[in-house]
């Protein structure tokens, strides 16, 4: 066609559509101006018999359930007009000769544009009656009950279209041999096995997560059990909960917190000190970690690690089986502490103090030497504990921090009056009196009117 303004041409191509192309002088090309039908799926019998068309699918044509391409090579070349053929013939004839499991059944196809050439039998008012009408006719291949009316199809189904939940769609019941549909029991089994499989997968994932967490925690705790010298292990709060069985075994306590017994995965016993009182606890935490963690001596309790998570702060020490000296020293019948053992404790404590005073890079003043802070191992060898009051000082002992304090009855007068420190072992001397005498230097050390101060008794 030609006129003074426009040049157009009409084409019918392999798609089955009539298309009008218009020539553009500017681009020197043909452009599509119009096509009929507008959608390719509306072309009559585009996908052939029992083929379903879907505009939104990568493959425009597909065979419906229970059917396969009539000529696979044509389909591979893009020509689906040959349609599809049934995989299994229908079970037609006397329905009484067939068991219920062998009779033809119907496959539900939702959101379909119904095929052409339907018939409408009279006197049918329900879906069940419509289904029976189709089953009783060997040539019936599908039915649909919509709007109170029954529609049946005989022979091949043409122009099937899956419209993907669009408006004005219907449900088509496609007749198939029973073997082409899974039985309800099979569907139930599939659902059950699917649920079981999903549950097993979830349990396996949870088990793997638990195993990874356990391995990491065990690895960390095993490293802690082998911690030597300056290698401090940073513990997690959850690890200490597990090691101490939720802090169930309390073995002692002091001004800054309680001590709990625990064990590492290799059964190595540990003592976990929980620091209480946020302000003071943090000061002690920083002091002990910075001082005890860097020193090693046979007469000093070894710090294995620490934990600092928010307000939760802990110190992890090696565990001393015999407990503190006061539990043995001040008992009415102390058969464990022979004079040889007392001498061993006194000398060992002195060696630990000498190491802190003379052999560390910076002099460390313990500030709170007393029987409660002398722990004993299996052989009653003494180890100094609780460095919460320790202060790092230079060789000039006149430099004393004002926050330092100790226990009444063991604190040197210089600490009380504020004059420069001249004695480094006053507390040790007071404790030595107790080791020899087997009695405390104060009868009621926590009361202001305590009596029995040892220098007075000596005088």
Question: What this model shows, in words?
Answer:
This protein is of the alpha+beta class and 459 residues long. The chain has three domains: 37-181, no CATH class; 200-319, Phosphorylase Kinase, domain 1 (2-Layer Sandwich); 322-459, Transferase(Phosphotransferase) domain 1 (Transferase(Phosphotransferase), domain 1, Orthogonal Bundle). Helix content is 27%, strand content 24%. The protein contains ten helices and 22 strands. The strands form six sheets. A seven-stranded mixed sheet has the order 5-4-11-8-12-9-10, covered by helices on one side. A six-stranded mixed sheet has the order 13-17-18-16-15-14. Strands 1-2-3 form a three-stranded antiparallel sheet, with no helix packed on it. The longest helix is centred in the middle third of the chain and has 42 residues, at 184-225. The radius of gyration is 47 Å and the shape is elongated.
Concise summary:
With 459 residues, the protein is of the alpha+beta class. The protein has helices spanning 72-76, 127-135, 184-225, 237-243, 278-291, 326-329, 339-359, 413-417, 426-437, 454-458; strands at 8-12, 18-24, 29-36, 51-53, 61-63, 67-69, 84-86, 105-113, 140-146, 149-154, 160-162, 170-176, 233-234, 250-254, 257-263, 269-275, 303-309, 312-318, 363-365, 374-376, 382-384, 391-393.
């Amino acid at each position: 066609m030609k006129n003074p303004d426009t040049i157009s041409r009409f084409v019918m191509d392999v798609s089955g559509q009539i298309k009008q192309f218009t020539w553009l002088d500017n681009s020197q090309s043909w452009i599509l101006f119009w096509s009929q039908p507008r959608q390719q799926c509306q072309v009559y019998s585009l996908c052939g018999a029992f083929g379903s068309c879907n505009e939104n699918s990568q493959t425009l044509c597909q065979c419906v359930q229970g059917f396969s391409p009539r000529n696979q090579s044509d389909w591979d070349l893009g020509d689906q007009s040959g349609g599809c053929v049934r995989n299994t013939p229908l079970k037609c004839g006397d329905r009484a000769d067939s068991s219920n499991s062998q009779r033809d059944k119907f496959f539900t196809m939702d959101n379909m544009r119904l095929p052409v050439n339907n018939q409408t039998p009279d006197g049918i008012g329900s879906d069940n009656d419509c289904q029976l009408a189709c089953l009783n006719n060997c040539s019936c291949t599908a039915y649909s009950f919509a709007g109170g009316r029954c529609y049946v199809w005989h022979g091949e189904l043409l122009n099937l279209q899956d419209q993907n939940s669009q408006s004005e769609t219907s449900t088509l019941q496609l007749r198939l041999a029973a073997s082409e549909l899974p039985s309800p029991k099979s569907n139930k089994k599939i659902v059950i096995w699917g649920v079981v499989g999903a549950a097993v997968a979830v349990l396996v994932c949870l088990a793997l997560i638990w195993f990874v967490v356990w391995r990491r925690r065990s690895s960390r705790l095993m490293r802690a059990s082998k911690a030597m010298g300056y290698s401090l292990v940073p513990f997690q709060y959850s690890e200490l909960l597990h090691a101490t069985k939720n802090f169930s075994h309390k073995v002692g306590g002091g001004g800054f917190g309680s001590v709990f017994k625990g064990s590492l995965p290799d059964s190595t016993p540990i003592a976990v000190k929980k620091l209480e009182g946020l302000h003071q606890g943090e000061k002690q935490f920083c002091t002990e970690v910075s001082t005890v963690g860097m020193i090693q001596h046979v007469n000093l309790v070894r710090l294995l690690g620490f934990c600092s998570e928010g307000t939760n702060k802990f110190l992890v020490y090696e565990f001393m089986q015999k407990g503190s000296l006061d539990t043995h020293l001040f008992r009415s019948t102390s058969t464990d502490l022979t004079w040889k053992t007392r001498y061993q404790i006194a000398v060992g404590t002195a060696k630990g103090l000498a190491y802190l005073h003379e052999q560390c890079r910076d002099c460390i003043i313990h500030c709170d030497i007393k029987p409660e802070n002398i722990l004993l191992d299996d052989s009653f060898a003494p180890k100094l504990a609780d460095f919460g009051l320790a202060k790092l000082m230079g060789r000039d002992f006149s430099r004393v921090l004002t926050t330092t304090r100790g226990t009444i009855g063991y604190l040197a007068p210089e600490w009380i009056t504020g004059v420069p420190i001249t004695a480094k072992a006053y507390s040790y001397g007071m404790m030595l009196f107790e080791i020899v005498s087997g009695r405390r230097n104060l009868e009621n050390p926590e009361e202001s009117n305590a009596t029995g101060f040892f220098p007075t008794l000596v005088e």
